[in-house]
Amino acid sequence: MEYQTDLIILERTELFRGVAAQALREIHAVSYRKRFSAGEVIFRQDDAAASLYVVSVGRLRATQTTPDGQQIIIRYLGPGEVAGYTTLSGAATHPGTITAIDDSHLIGWSAAAIKQIMGEHAAIAMNAIMLLGARYREMQLRLRELSTERVEQRIAHTILRLTAQAGRRTARGIEIAFPLSRQDLAEMSGTTLHTVSRTLSAWEEEGIVACGRRRVIVTRLDALTVIASATSSLSPNRP
Amino acid sequence: MEYQTDLIILERTELFRGVAAQALREIHAVSYRKRFSAGEVIFRQDDAAASLYVVSVGRLRATQTTPDGQQIIIRYLGPGEVAGYTTLSGAATHPGTITAIDDSHLIGWSAAAIKQIMGEHAAIAMNAIMLLGARYREMQLRLRELSTERVEQRIAHTILRLTAQAGRRTARGIEIAFPLSRQDLAEMSGTTLHTVSRTLSAWEEEGIVACGRRRVIVTRLDALTVIASATSSLSPNRP
DNA sequence: TCGAGCCTTTGCGGTAGCGCAAAGAACGGC
DNA sequence: GCCGTTCTTTGCGCTACCGCAAAGGCTCGA
């Protein structure tokens, strides 16, 4: 049962796209399975990079912490996504911490196994390049947002990205499919939980979102898009 | 002459590290050479990704521009560095603009050529993974800085990074080896040229830097390091 | 069912850093 | 050597956003 599920996940994972079924079974054969409960840590920042996982079930959060304890969220990882790219790219230690935020099942390989697999299958190395390229580009975008946009736009962009990545259609709108506190949103948008709370309250007033405790539902995606890409309305000297 | 120089550059480039001399000559054989004057554009944002360059001589700047014209600097590229990684990673268009800021000589390949080269040399694909991994990690770091640090620290970090990447020892200290305006520093640190100017003036007062028109020299690296990593002195309730 | 923890909301200053403006200063071309 | 252009400096007000504080609400476990 799990065997079947895992194979389907691997088939669809960006990293193994285009790999023949037989090869995929071999790759699966050298993997191991590991379960983590919500809250458990998969990798800790600065730990040696010794393994790589693909999420089968559940959800993970990648964070980075400053020496003085401030934290930012790098990304969330859902089924099919790769945790521990560092192990691919040869860095000695993990740049951040990865935590399970739901009970999660991961499919893992040792660094040596992954290295061998990539040596044998050029397509996988190519997929890794595409994967890292995409993440790099996403980071460029976020950096640009953080540099040039005001808080409200940044929060809007963050929520839009999350709905695209983990949105679930419901009767009331698109719901982000995992628990997401105001603090979490703040750590993704480069602001504080207070500001996020105020902003969401305002949006709820306007009927753009509906939200509860660690729960966000977007009811008017169009309105949020407008906010996200609003040419900063504060410059009065604009045509 | 140029042939020799180029081969030496290719040998040392992160992308071709560990490739046999003979193979490198073949790779060089299918490359072309292109010169750009200071100010010329190599790739324009959203253009199709059709080629990849390694810098032989000169310096490039990678920027990204928002729809409303605001710009940020993603990175500077010196000799041996790779411009146009998008062509490696299969995205259709360039995420940003690359401009020559000095007269520059580039060694280039078409997308097809690079694809073939990577297919034939697994080591190069592996190098590409490491290269993208490193850039991804650098972006994570910058994102964290931008999210958690105040302007002064961010400017300090930016300058430290630039001295590491393109610092030149001089009698007065470490000089950043290319013209760098206040505006440029602002676009790398997520602030305005005014704030950069004020900050540099203050540092000059304290003898930490010496700077002129589009020129920055760090005279007291240690002091700058302290500023960069100062635990935000504004929280009064810290042990 | 109750209580202890989280999470969230909201009010109220305070301030870091922005935006504007205007005056230098350093090039570089002619 | 002169002049236009580009870059830099500095003053001054303003405001978006933070930081603190305190008061609700949800949950979940006992």
Give the radius of gyration of chain A: 19 Å
Oligomer: homodimer
Class derived from helix and strand content of chain A: alpha+beta
What overall geometry of chain A do the principal axes of the alpha carbons give? globular
What letter string, H or E per element, gives the SSE order of chain A? HHEEEEEEHEEHHHEEHHEEH
Number of helices of chain A: 9
Strand content of chain A: 15-25%
* Quantity of strands of chain A, as a count: 12
Helix content of chain A: 40-55%
- Which two protein chains have the largest interface (Cβ within 8 Å of the partner's Cβ), and how many residues from each? A-B, 43 and 43 residues
The strand line-up of the biggest sheet of chain A is 1-8-3-6
Low-confidence stretches of chain A: 233-239
N- to C-terminal separation of chain A? Answer: 61 Å
Describe the structure.
Two copies of one chain form a homodimer. By secondary structure, chain A is an alpha+beta fold. Chain A has nine helices and twelve strands. The first copy, chain A, has helices at 2-12, 21-29, 85-89, 111-120, 122-148, 151-166, 182-189, 193-205, 221-228, and strands spanning 32-36, 41-43, 51-57, 60-65, 71-77, 82-83, 97-100, 104-110, 167-169, 174-176, 209-212, 215-218. In chain A, α1 crosses α2 and α4 (111-120) packs across α5. Mean pLDDT of chain A is 92; it is low at 233-239. Chain A binds chain B through residues 64, 66-68, 70, 72, 74, 85-86, 88-91, 95-96, 118-119, 122, 125-126, 128-130, 132-137, 139-144, 146-148, 187, 190, 229, 231-232, and chain B through 64, 66-68, 70, 72, 74, 85-86, 88-91, 95-96, 118-119, 122, 125-126, 128-130, 132-137, 139-144, 146-148, 187, 190, 229, 231-232. The first copy, chain A, binds a DNA duplex (30 and 30 nucleotides) through residues 150-151, 181-183, 191-195, 197-198, 200-201, 212-214, 234-235.
